[in-house]
Amino acid sequence: MTTFTYTREIKIAWAHCDPAGIVFNPRFFEFFDTNSWGLFEAALGINQHDFAKTYGIVGIALVDARGNFMKPVAFGDTVEVISHVSEFRRSSFDVEHKIINRGEVAVEGRESRVWAVRRKDDPDTITTAPIPAEVVAKFG
Fold first, then answer.
1. What proportion of the chain, given as a percentage, has pLDDT over 90?
2. CA–CA gap between residue 126 and residue 73 (Å, rounded)
3. Which of 28, 82, 93, 107 sits a CA distance of 20 to 30 A from 70?
4. Would the pLDDT of 121 be above 80?
């Protein structure tokens, strides 16, 4: 498990909600995705647009996502989205997310992602590559 954590606050807008004013569950995956990119920007100290130039990657591609919806989040709520990398492997890693509403965990999420690069022999195809040790080190 890594120690670096990224936290972002979100004020829930009507556009996040279903007609009952409750956050539409797929929106939570959008919140998770945004936090994953923010987590890497903060840990690496560069903008995601510079990932390719600095590390030669296409991105941190999502390959699996899960959520556990325990308490509703509604229009007007202000929530914290807290994210960290729970495990690095050779070319993949897991990111765990918690959404805190009024001091309680409302939603938990987990993503598996890969360090994605263009294949040298076929630049139109994406594959995985080993995650550099210097990247892993920045997450503590």
1. 99
2. 36
3. 93
4. yes
